[in-house]
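Note to self: keep these together.
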Amino acid sequence: MYRLIILFLFTMVFFSCEDGAPQAEQKTAQPRVVSLSGSITETLFMLGWGDKLVGVDVTSTYPRVVTKLPTLGHARSIQTEAVLALNPTHIFLVKDEVNPELISKWKSAGVSVIEISKEYSIEGSKNSISEIARALNEEEESKELIADIELQYRTLKDTMTDVRVLFIYARGGGNLMVSGTNTPVANMIHLAGAQNAITEFEDYKPLSIEYLIKSKPQVILMFDTGFDAIGGLDGLEKIPGVAETDAYKNKRIVRMDGQLLSGFGPRVVDGISELRTRLFLKN
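Structure:
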């Protein structure tokens, strides 16, 4: 409830600040924040800094009001000039996701660059929120947000099954990857009480018939955007080997919002709960 109230209030503030001289003059005295991470963007809104955002990366899709902001592309391929053109006072990013040379240039330009550590777990989500809050002197606000996450997580019943879930990452242009262990989605699958179908390697590797056969997936999981990009169920069927899996035969195809599924931000428990529901109750 706390999070919904915060998002509602700042959505109203965002939309009420239409173009005009009085508002423009007022904003020049305010911090101008760029966020290069979807989970950081969500946290900034939750902490009351949503109206100070002037630019975001491509993973910043929630709350929907953020789509009105200039989008700077992906953090790993960001352009120095595009960021500085927004005259930011603060740039928030995930540690090790941005070229150090760019960070050095931004700092040389007088911008405060805040690098946030990222660990894809419940504790990692809480730690990231705390880091962001400390940088903004918003520790008191973050305590309630973290307490809300802890309460929500405690209310989830512990569940562990042998359901084998294969995550397919469609990167566009026919570039399909499958998730091994130690990826954000693999960690989310585990938290939801299921098993990542591939355990013999870490990170991602190109999808192959061999992996489809060996992994024996009972569920295929995809991002909404990736599922749509390959042409939905028809496109999925055309991928060699997919139609032979139990997951496809039983139409156990689960699609979810990418940021909710893998962001590990303030909505981390929402992501676990939704994935668990989709895996075990309905598609």
